[in-house]
Amino acid sequence: MAVAPAHLHVESMQTAIPIRIAVERGRTLPIAVSGTPPITTAELQRRFRAVLYYRDADGGHRPDGEARARLEQAAWVQEALSAALSDEPKMAGRLRRRSRGDGPWEVKLNDSGLRLLTASADTPMAAFLEASDRESKEAALALWTDVDAQDPEMCAPFFMQVQLTWFNDGGCAIGACCSLLHADPLSLINFLKTWARAHAEVQEQSKLVLNPVIRYTRYFRSPRAATKRLRSIPLVPAADGATTTTVLFRIVGDDAPADRGALAEACVAQASEKLGFEEPARFTVLAGDGLGGLNVVRACKPGGDGETTPQCSVQALRDACWNEAGLEEVVLDGCKPLHVSCSIVSPCADEGLVVVMPAAAGCAEFFISATVPS
């Protein structure tokens, strides 16, 4: 007899908004697209996903008062997110199109906030981490709602989403996902580090202010009121499976060509060779414009369009990993993550994707992710 799969149960859905109005409120960050076609619905779903796993801070499962403890932890997480958003206004912005949906894309800094989900999984974290198909199940730990190409502003809280999931052995996971048109992976990682610092500060200084507490009063008085499930999802491998694989590189700015197309083509070629995949004929390059905006460039591999592309020295590229971005700094309740998983999700199964990211503000070093069809 087949064993029924474990389930993830979504228990609450909140919106974290900045605790103060951003100085840059009202500013727009343009998304400039070169080449054809325009941004497609599938491209709008390209995203970065990070999942961080933590052991129970007290070293064991606590059934007594567990519902109340989870609510208190969720309240701290939300307040820390609100504090972090005040320092990272782009993460609270909105992806939209100008001219009533027919114009170019942009990110509007308007303090929309981000979505926070809380959920529980009826399986031990240890068993989940040891499962051979863990990566294909992790989408449930950072749930994603597709961006509506016709009315993207209605999806505002979902461009950046954080999910707190408790396992039944006391472990928990923080999952986060963000549209790559909204922010690059390093921006999301830096935001998570900002959030972790804010989380420690608000706990230490007891800054869980009155109004947010009032919002949770009913649940604190009657914890069972918070255990109503909004929906349940089987923890099974994603139906579509992984169709792309990502390789991360690092390069010093002096070695990087001014032509981002040449850099991107070299990364795609090296990633394809390393993975043993056929090099895609087409790929898209996402690179910041240095002013907060984003350039989206369509490209083809040399010879694919009858033209040649200046080459970048492969020797200048070195392999990198997401942990180099400092994910171990995302400390929760005094605990470093037990395990970290990062991935770029791209529904465009026949195209490559390259994201060029400065290692830090004003830094002459870059991370480059190359995602190729598998």
Topology:
Layout: E1 7-16, E2 28-34, H1 41-44, E3 47-54, H2 66-87, E4 94-97, H3 98-101, E5 105-108, E6 114-121, H4 125-130, H5 134-137, E7 160-167, E8 172-179, H6 185-204, H7 210-221, E9 231-234, E10 244-252, H8 260-275, E11 282-288, E12 294-300, E13 318-319, E14 339-345, E15 352-358, E16 365-373
Parallel strand pairs: 2-12, 6-7, 11-15
Antiparallel strand pairs: 1-6, 1-9, 2-5, 3-8, 3-14, 4-5, 7-8, 10-13, 10-16, 11-12, 15-16
Total E-strand runs:
16
Give the low-confidence spans: 210-214, 217-221, 306-310
Binned, the helix content reads: 10-25%
Q: What order do the SSEs take from the amino end to the carboxyl end, as H and E?
A: EEHEHEHEEHHEEHHEEHEEEEEE
Estimate the global geometry from the Cα principal axes.
globular
User: Separation of termini?
Assistant: 34 Å
Work out the strand percent: 25-35%
Major β-sheet strand ordering: 4-5-2-12-11-15-16-10-13
What's the total helix number?
8
Main pleated-sheet profile: 9 strands, mixed
Q: What radius of gyration results from the CA coordinates? A: 21 Å
| Overall pLDDT | 83
Query: Which structural class matches the secondary elements?
Result: alpha+beta
Description:
- With 374 residues, the protein is an alpha+beta fold.
- The chain has helices spanning 41-44, 66-87, 98-101, 125-130, 134-137, 185-204, 210-221, 260-275, and strands at residues 7-16, 28-34, 47-54, 94-97, 105-108, 114-121, 160-167, 172-179, 231-234, 244-252, 282-288, 294-300, 318-319, 339-345, 352-358, 365-373.
- The strands form 2 sheets. A 9-stranded mixed sheet has the order 4-5-2-12-11-15-16-10-13. The protein has a 7-stranded mixed sheet with strand order 9-1-6-7-8-3-14.
- A hairpin with a 5-residue loop joins strand 11 (282-288) and strand 12.
- The longest helix is centred in the first third of the chain and has 22 residues, at 66-87.
- The protein is globular and about 65 Å long.
